[in-house]
Design brief:
The complex is a heterodimer. Chain A is mainly β. Chain A contains 10 helices and 58 strands. The chains are: A mainly beta, B mainly alpha.
Chain lengths: 1052, 566
């Protein structure tokens, strides 16, 4: 009865209103997506007026309009719809997803969703397909070339090896400028734990991010600018990669409300990317005479029939060889060492999405056998998560992820250091007649047998000298959110993320590395634990018709704990058992831990004016445990402004369909690493049971202050012809001051390092993302996306008293004032004032300059990624080309290929060479004749000496100055190519499948580096130091891999 | 209802805020940056052995400059850059000595200041002695080095200036006097004991060392303006020097492999190295074999079998490279009659770079605890010797050679010839002592008082008596050079001071090496070259120059002299 009365009353009222205000009436209805799911927050505007409203949580709206008005319904990511108001009082609208609108809604700091069009800074989102479908087992590698401003260096081809990712250049000196990874709101440690130095024989170690399963990733957002990242505080100074996993997603709603299951299965084959082109005319020796040497500078193969059987092989296998063996080239001796690897990637995801919540489970298994025999990588992961809104509106979500990886790999690095043995010691520069298919294990000792000494047979090495790394990561996450009223909501999130590495490094008793110790087992354990909690209170007020205010305040606490335990055990007792128990002695190398805590209080206010002008201001205060007490509290802030010109100026052009200008300033403070201030003494290994102690190699400055990164950025987003052409452009300048870092000090100061505030680095850069759709018809579409990344780095200041800092004691990488970070500084050729070489008359080689100098810069001039997508009906063809311009590489591989005379580069050798230049003395000064003139060099050298320095001089290969092995790293690459096919839905109607797609992929199929010696086919992307700050240095690394295969995706 | 909800949840929020604000308030929440895994104090008895290990490393082999200096002094030959005096400014092992010197100086400062504060003067004296020692070595190798501003980073001194070498030497001499006074002061209740790896806390031996070492320094500067006869006379008058090889200043290595490899560093370098780079110099070989036409001609040294060990039995062709059919040894330097197999300094011969691991001759039982050459041939591996041989730094026989030199120069009284004989006998006794302590399982005969030794000493005496004064000095210095094999630091000093012994000259027009195997494959003297001049001091390590803004420009090592070098 009461209800009925209300209705009548309403009707009456409506009638009254109708009468009083003539035609004006209230239109109501629901706005939903094409599948009928309601869209909250959609905008409804009466065309030509300022009247507007937005839909509520259930997609419902109500607006006053007159008959004959046009209502415009719009929502981010959907095509706007215009409808004429007729007699009806209810209008339900289904909005079509706007396929052109890329990157519209983005997740920013702390999972805050923002309309990209409102942001005053640059943010990039990468679609999950782009990550999963390129067959890279590691997320970082997948991002190469896909995001403007993000620089990925792949390091090497070892399965599971770490790659370096850097956003907007290097802005720290202490370590690598890796961004902060946030997975489902919790810091995701990305440590690369190197058990031994990659100079002297480390492995291709994985980094923490490799434990993340790309199959479970829902979205990746890269917060490139400090303004975007600053809310995350200290850790975010290098940018942030925000990852939402399927299991951690709070996205509700779905295309169908039932459980959907997605099965994907990929099978890829992997081969060595490229090998040098070898000469097969000359064998080992010198002066065109055969000798059992490393360098192939000996007799022509057509000049003699046989050689004495290699003594090592004769001794080990007396019955298999006679006195002599044929003297013939082995053209395939290097390529025969490698195999075709296989990658199997299988994943099942079950997802359920309803209005009230969702639930998702992902189980994945990846198994990679690398192209290097005995090299493998595997990852198994399990993720489950979901969230639901309780009747009292409290939203509760939780997730658990667990993953385990296993990596088995060999040793790399420079074979020439005492106690080292690299599996690539000679692998790419074998003597041209060495047949490595011969037996290589001594039957009585188990040792490697090679034609000459000084190296282990690569197959023997890969089989017997191993690095086995097992990592496990468990992360759990609980989040609560509650809408307090229409304007205020609160959320709380707490997460726990534990990452553990357990590594065994085994050197077989017969390894070249174990000549003095009877074999070693190095057990290395590392555990990183993060506990993080964040409390957020969100405010959202419409101040007036024109002003909109949203604000967030938050409190973030972080507790990080690390633990390292490592033991070096020597001398195995029983053969073939590689356990600590089976060793004679065990030395504890590490047994220590650190703890670090950080508390941050922050606020973020956005003021919107008329939906086209947005001002965002943030501030954060951090308290950090790792800084001196008096400096542990520090504040920083940011401000950014964006204006949508097309809205503000009411530009209604078919050409310029969208234009936004943005700009901002941000500052991010940063603390030190845990125990950075340490001044304790260190215990050494007792000598003859006498304990010893000494000062640390590093001294902690007790007065350090926080490091600050200040960034200014300006940019524009322009769209033409409804995104047929779209460009986003950003310019930034980033200055990091009071850099906190250990600085190498002159050792005469008593220490090797001082942990202090050491200087200033400036990065300036340009990022451009260009979308072009050259062709678009009903069935066919060709779209391109080009990323352009250019960053210019300069170290502008170092602590007083220090000219430059060497980043690794054995490498040429330095930080030097006035030069880009990581610049190569080392020994170089002596030159006269005109730049001519100064020659040592006695040897005919170039004299070494007594003063070192800058000899290279590993930072590329720019990088371009050119992504093409062709869609024809259900077929999609994709191709990504990358272009890296510049960026020097110092390469032991190239130096050795030339110095050992094995490639076609050095085949033309039956002549003498005179290095053009003038004679010089031992101090690097020109020698003048009696007339005061410089004396041209006339000392001839042979090809061997041209690449293997004669005494007293330096040439262009082995035993020369550092400068001789530095090459320009420009490289063009076909990074990815793929062909996909989606089965038409109508074919699937009678099957249980909702979607079936199949695709074929190729990865790194082709590259060309124009400035390395032609026949070395060297890939300048190969480096040795993984994700560390030392870039551009290659120490006999494994070449990159190329990969191709098939992937099938089923949804039902 | 709605109001209530807000109120309720506000309460919760307040609670959370309160809790976390407490964390902020409670400063202790952030006080977690302490290293609980390492000690905050360094006890004297743990610092001292660490320092003594550091002292020993200076100029040692394997990763220190001994590898270079022994090549410059023509006892070892290498295929690395030190061949032909080619050590470069960036050389890693030179850098190791420099770093070691200063990290050790830093530890010494910790020890001295701590001992000073607590009045433990004996410890302080030991610290001062070792400080004086390492500083003198620093000057001997490099000349001007950081001293007055060194190891003061805690005071904010990042880039120490390089001080004048003579000033440092004066400070060294003063330090030794202070050290002696402190050691003999009897003050302080903590005395060094077993942890003192040199003398086991025997302060009398320390005093003897200080005096002997001071004598060595005075002899070294005898031609410089710093020399003061009165100082020398006073020291001689005190007459408290080494009196037997029980007083030797040397570091005793053990055969322990783990947790720390405590074996002799030259042994580890030679027998453990993956690549052979410690060839015995043919020049050294020919002098000791009596093959050198200039000195000790026809007088084969009885220590040969103790000094190096030939893998090849007599008459066996080098196995890795020799061609049996033709008899071509394909060897850069191979003595068919002894199996000695090596390469020449500055060789550019075609066989210099061959793989020779299983043929080459290796340092023997005396210099490094390697193999005693029983003339049976052997196959080198890490178990070919024990590695138990001391790192000799300043020994009794060396002291006697110093006395002989000073007598010969008329700076102290006494007969140089008699002293030389005494020194020679002490040198043979030293070999016997090293062998006796080496724990070798080989049967090694004693040298002392053997006929071969007596004959040898007598022949040297005869040669000495007949020699001109200059030749006599050459004989003293050459014998000292032989006796100190394995300790090239002082050899390098002596050569620069006196020009003796005479070293191989790859550019000489004369026949440099005398070896003739009569096999139709004679040595070709034109195959040796020398593309660099002798280095009168070592380059300052490039790393120091790169980092230190107060460092001088790199020197020309071929002309930069140490002040005592005339």
């Amino acid at each position: 009865m009461k209800t009925k009365f209300s209705r009548i009353l309403t009707l009456l009222l409506a009638f009254v209103v109708q009468v009083s205000f003539a035609q004006e009436k209230t239109i109501s209805g629901t706005i939903s997506d094409s599948s009928g799911f309601p869209l909250p927050g959609a905008t409804i505007v009466v065309q030509g007026t300022v009247t507007g409203t937005s839909s509520d949580f259930d997609g419902r709206y109500a607006i006053k309009a007159k008959k004959g008005n046009t209502l415009i319904f719009s929502f981010v990511g959907y095509e706007a719809q215009e409808l004429l108001v007729g007699n009806q009082n209810s209008i339900n609208v289904k909005l079509k997803e706007d396929s052109e609108a890329l990157e519209e809604v983005v997740v920013t700091a702390f999972g805050i969703k923002r309309n990209a069009k409102n942001l005053g800074y640059a943010v990039s989102t990468v679609e999950s397909e782009a990550i999963v479908e390129n067959s890279e087992p590691d997320l970082v590698r997948s991002l190469a070339g896909k995001v403007a401003g993000v620089d990925v260096n792949l390091s090497n081809g070892g399965a599971g090896g770490a790659s370096r990712i850097q956003i907007r250049g290097q802005n720290t000196i202490r370590g690598s400028s890796q961004p902060l990874f946030i997975v489902d709101g919790i810091a995701f440690s990305n440590n690369e734990i190197a058990t031994s130095s990659q100079t002297t024989g480390g492995g291709s170690y994985e980094s923490g991010i490799s434990s993340l399963d790309p199959n479970n990733i829902e979205s990746v957002t890269v917060l490139k600018s400090a303004a975007a990242a600053s809310l995350y505080g200290s850790r975010a100074a290098n940018g942030v990669v925000v990852i939402t996993t399927k299991s951690g997603s709070s996205k509700t709603g779905a295309t169908n409300k039932k459980l959907s299951i997605n099965v994907s299965s990929g099978l890829y084959f992997e081969k060595i990317g490229n090998l040098p082109e070898y000469q097969n005319t000359y064998g080992p020796g010198t002066n065109f005479d055969y000798a059992n040497f490393n360098g192939s500078w000996g007799a022509r193969f057509d000049s003699r029939e046989t050689i004495p059987t290699w003594p090592n092989l004769l001794n080990a296998f007396p019955d298999q060889f006679g006195e002599t063996v044929p003297y013939v080239a082995q053209p395939n001796n290097a390529s025969d060492l490698f195999r075709t690897g296989v990658v199997r990637d299988n994943s099942v995801t079950a997802t359920s999405r309803t209005e009230n919540g969702n639930f998702s489970v992902t189980i994945s298994d990846l198994n990679q056998e690398g192209y290097i025999p005995f090299n493998s990588y595997g990852r198994t992961s399990f993720a489950v998560g979901g969230n639901t809104t309780l009747p009292n509106k409290l939203n509760v979500g939780a997730s658990i992820n667990y993953s385990e990886t296993d990596q088995i790999g060999g040793f790399f690095g420079n074979n020439q250091f005492a106690g080292s043995a690299s599996s690539f010691a000679r692998t790419l520069w074998l003597g041209r007649n060495w047949d490595l298919n011969l037996p290589f294990t001594n039957p009585s000792t188990g040792a490697s047998v090679t034609p000459n000494n000084g190296w282990d047979h690569p197959l023997w090495s890969w089989k017997n000298d191993k690095i086995l790394s097992n990592t496990s990561r468990a992360s759990t996450n609980l989040n609560l959110s509650y809408p307090i009223n229409d304007n205020i909501s609160a959320s709380f999130r707490v997460g726990y993320n534990k990452y553990a590495i357990d590594r065994d490094q085994i050197r077989h008793p017969q390894s070249r590395a174990s000549l003095t110790d009877g074999g070693t087992l190095q057990k290395d354990g590392f555990i990183n634990t993060d506990i993080e909690s964040t409390l957020l209170v969100n405010f959202d007020y419409k101040l007036s018709d024109k002003f909109n205010l949203t604000a967030i305040t938050g409190l973030n606490t972080l507790d990080n704990e690390t633990e390292r335990n490592s033991t070096l055990a020597t001398e195995f007792i029983s053969p073939g058992i590689f356990t600590l128990e089976n060793t004679i002695t065990q030395l504890v190398q590490n047994d220590n831990g650190t703890r670090k805590r950080n508390v941050g209080l922050f606020g973020d206010v956005t003021l919107g004016f008329n939906d086209y002008l947005f001002l965002n201001v943030t501030g954060r205060n951090d308290w950090s445990s790792s800084l001196p007490k008096e400096n542990r509290s520090y504040f920083y802030s940011s401000a950014s402004l964006s204006v949508i010109l097309t809205e503000a100026l009411k530009i209604e052009s078919d050409v310029l369909t969208f234009a936004k200008l943005r700009g901002g300033f941000a500052s991010v403070g940063r603390d030190a690493d845990a125990e950075f201030l340490n001044t304790t003494f260190v215990l050494g290994t007792p000598f003859n049971s006498t304990p010893v102690i000494s000062n640390r190699a590093g001294l902690g400055d007790q007065k350090i202050t926080p490091e600050f990164t200040d960034e200014i950025e300006f940019g524009a987003d322009l769209e033409f012809w409804k995104r047929r052409l779209a460009i986003d452009f950003t310019w930034y300048q980033k200055t990091t001051t009071d850099l906190i870092s250990p600085v190498s000090v002159p050792t005469s100061s008593g220490f090797q390092e001082l942990n202090t505030n050491i200087g200033e680095i400036v990065n300036k850069g340009i990022e451009i993302g260009l979308t072009v759709v050259p062709v678009q018809t009903e069935d066919f579409k060709w779209s391109t996306f080009t990323t352009f990344t250019r960053n210019v780095n300069e170290v502008t200041e170092l602590v007083a008293g220090v000219d430059r800092i060497q980043l690794d004691g054995n490498q040429v990488s330095h930080a030097q004032v006035g030069e880009p970070f990581g610049v190569f500084y080392g020994t170089r050729f002596a030159r006269d004032d005109q730049g001519n070489f100064l020659i040592n008359e006695a040897g005919g080689g170039i004299i070494e300059d007594l003063e070192n100098g800058v000899i290279g810069d590993p930072n590329p001039d720019f990088k371009i990624g050119f992504i093409n997508t062709f869609k024809y009906k259900n077929f999609t063809l994709g191709a990504q080309f990358d272009w890296r311009e510049g960026g020097d590489v110092q390469s032991i591989t190239i130096q050795s290929l030339l110095g050992r005379g094995v490639t076609k580069d050095t085949e033309n050798r039956e002549r003498a060479f005179i290095i053009p230049g003038f004679l010089g003395d031992g101090s690097g000064n020109p020698i003048l004749d009696s007339n005061g003139q410089q004396i041209p060099n006339t000392t001839a050298i042979d090809a061997n000496e041209l690449y293997f320095s004669p005494a007293g001089g330096n040439t262009f290969g082995i035993n020369s100055v550092d400068e001789a092995s530095v090459f320009d790293g420009t490289v063009y690459r076909l990074r990815e190519i793929s062909l996909g096919y989606d089965m038409p839905t109508k074919w699937l109607e009678k099957t249980p499948f909702g979607k079936v797609s199949i695709s074929a992929f190729g990865n790194n199929l082709w590259y060309f580096a124009p400035n390395v010696p032609k026949y070395t086919n060297f890939d300048p992307e190969v480096t040795s130091f993984g994700s560390s700050r030392i870039q551009g240095i290659e120490n006999a690394s494994a070449p990159t891999a190329k990969r191709f295969g098939l992937k099938i995706n089923l949804t039902f | 209802m709605i109001y209530n909800k807000i109120k309720k949840s506000s309460k919760h929020l307040l609670l959370v805020f309160a809790l976390t604000t407490c964390f902020l308030g409670c400063d202790s929440y952030l006080d977690v940056d302490t290293d609980t895994d390492n000690p905050i104090a360094a006890p004297l008895d743990q610092l001292l052995p660490q320092i003594e290990i550091g002292v020993t490393n200076l100029g040692d082999f394997r990763v220190f400059s001994g590898d270079i200096l022994a090549v410059y002094m023509h006892q070892i030959v290498s295929r690395s850059e030190q061949d032909q005096y080619g050590g470069r400014p960036g050389n890693v092992i030179m850098n190791n000595d420099w770093n070691g010197l200063y990290s050790n100086l830093n530890n010494l400062q910790s020890l001295i200041s701590q001992a000073d504060e607590n009045g433990n003067l004996a410890y302080k004296g030991l610290g001062q002695t070792l400080k004086a020692y390492i500083l003198s070595v620093g000057v001997d190798l490099w000349g001007d080095i950081p001293f007055s501003e060194a190891t003061r980073l805690k005071e904010g001194l990042v880039s120490p200036v390089f001080d004048d070498q003579e000033v440092i030497y004066m400070a060294v001499l003063d330090l030794l006097d202070e050290a002696k006074a402190n050691i003999n002061s009897g003050e302080g209740n903590v005395l060094p004991g077993e942890e003192d790896l040199f003398y086991g806390g025997d302060l009398e031996k320390w005093t003897k060392f200080i005096n002997t070492f001071k004598l060595k320094l005075l002899n070294q500067i005898r031609l410089s303006s710093l020399f003061n006869q009165a100082d020398l006379d006073a020291l001689v008058l005190e007459d408290n020097f080494f009196s037997s090889n029980a007083d030797d200043f040397q570091f005793v290595h053990t055969g322990t492999i783990a947790p720390r490899d405590e074996r002799n560093q030259l042994f580890r370098r030679a027998y453990g190295g993956a690549q052979v780079d410690t060839y015995i110099s043919p020049w050294f070989y020919e002098i000791m074999m009596g093959m050198n036409p200039n000195i000790f001609t026809g007088n084969k040294d009885p220590r040969v079998a103790y000094y190096w060990a030939n893998q090849l039995p007599d008459g066996v062709l080098p196995r890795d490279n020799g061609v049996a059919a033709t008899g071509d040894p394909k060897a850069d330097y191979w003595d068919s009659s002894t199996g000695f197999f090596s390469i020449r300094f500055g060789s550019t011969g075609p066989n210099r770079d061959g793989a020779v691991q299983s043929d080459a001759t290796f340092p023997g039982i005396f210099p490094c605890g390697g193999r005693y050459d029983d003339n049976a041939g052997f196959a080198r591996d890490i178990n070919s010797g024990t590695g138990i041989a001391p790192r000799r730094i300043l020994t009794y026989d060396e002291f006697l050679y110093i006395q002989a030199e000073l007598m010969h120069e008329g700076l102290i009284s006494g007969d140089a010839s008699t002293k030389l004989t005494e020194a020679l006998n002490a040198s043979f006794a030293k070999v016997d002592q090293v062998v006796a302590n080496s724990e070798t399982t080989q049967d090694v005969p004693t040298l002392t008082a053997s006929d071969a030794v007596n004959d040898y000493v007598m022949a040297i005496n005869t040669e000495f008596s007949a020699a001109t004064p200059d030749k006599q000095l050459e004989i003293i210095m050459t014998q000292k050079w032989i006796a100190t094999f394995g300790d090239p630091l002082d050899q390098y000093n002596d050569y620069r001071r006196t020009g003796f012994p005479i070293l191989a000259d790859p550019l000489s027009g004369n026949k440099e090496y005398q070896l003739d195997n009569m096999d139709g494959f004679p040595l070709n003297d034109s195959e040796t070259v020398q593309n660099n001049e002798f280095q009168l001091s070592l380059f300052w390590p490039q790393n120091e120059l790169n980092a230190n803004e107060n460092a001088p420009a790199q020197k020309d090592a071929e002309s930069y002299k140490i002040f005592w070098d005339n």
